[in-house]
Amino acid sequence: MVERVQEIPDVLLTTNSSGNKPSNFPDVVARSEWQQETMSNYCLGINGSLLNYSREQNEMLYKHLIYNDKYGIIYCVVPKIGCTKMKLLFVLLEEHYTLEDLLVRNLSVSHKSHLRNVKTLWELSATKREARMRSYYKYMPVRDPLERLVSSYLNKISRRNMRSKFFLNLRQDIIREFRLPSDTNKNASDDIDSMVPTFKEFVQYFIEYRHLMDNHFQPMLDICQPCLVKYDFYPNFHSLSYDMDYILQVFGIPRDFYFNDVRIGASLMPKPAAQFNYSSYYDQIDENIRAKLIEKLKPDMQFYHQLYPRMQKYYS
């Protein structure tokens, strides 16, 4: 089983008196500085596999880096790490909507609008892109890869009211591959539309066909490439509210843009670790499959635990 360690790692608490960093967040200031040093050493020590990216991978990176010129800030969008509220924040920063507008709209406005109303670095020329990368504050939220995978399964695979054609087709592919008998016609199953893959079936598919899946299932390393991009801060999913409060104060962004009306805010806030018993899902799969999964997730897990070593999970 997976043993959860809920606490955030200790950091050196230092008095902050420089720049526009809020003095009431000494722990976050120390953590962000420690993370930058840790990532510098981590990236120096890895092999070239994390530094040799294809054009397609670089395109993915720049399409996931959204920015705001008014505040000089860049955010790397990683699905299942609070990205709905983050996109909503950047929609508000671009001033296409007021907070009052969003309070009376469906929550999905942040997902539907961000391609039109939030700017990505991919849209810029190389010169303008590099200028922003050099001077803007950059942050990349992170989450334990095992937990993120369960969250993606629950949200995109096992939901009964799933409407997305892409994910409905993905569910059918998983069922055909890992549930239907080998002698069954895999293209003609009567009830396949109503079948929902188990977590074990999903994991088996993930191990074999991750490269065919969308960004909800792709590594944080591949999406945000932290050994190419020097991020200033790596907020943790389980302290995201606190960490975002720090970022908002650094830039003088109104707190209501993130900590807003309950109709938007409450349902999108990350659940505390104690409320999300994801380890029970891994108890459903046998040791052999679990070992293959861990090997698949190994780079992302090593990256995450460099930043948050006391969030390490152990297996028995």
Structure notes:
The chain has 316 residues and is mainly alpha-helical. It has a domain at 2-144 and 221-272 and 307-315. 48% of the residues lie in helices and 5% in strands. The strands form two sheets. A four-stranded mixed beta sheet has the order 4-2-3-5, with helices on both faces. It is globular, with a radius of gyration of 20 Å. The N and C termini lie close together (6 Å). 31% of the residues are buried. Residues 1-19 and 261-269 have low confidence and may be disordered.
Task: Describe this protein with a few key phrases.
single chain; 316 residues; mainly alpha; 4-stranded mixed beta sheet; 14 helices; globular; disordered N terminus; glycoprotein; signal-anchor; transmembrane helix
Write the SSE topology:
Blueprint: E1 2-3, H1 26-45, H2 55-64, E2 65-68, E3 73-76, H3 83-93, H4 99-103, H5 109-117, E4 119-120, H6 126-135, E5 137-139, H7 145-156, H8 165-178, H9 199-209, H10 220-224, H11 240-251, H12 262-268, H13 279-282, H14 287-307, E6 314-315
Parallel strand pairs: 3-5
Antiparallel strand pairs: 1-6, 2-3, 2-4
Helix pairs in contact: 3-5, 8-9, 9-14
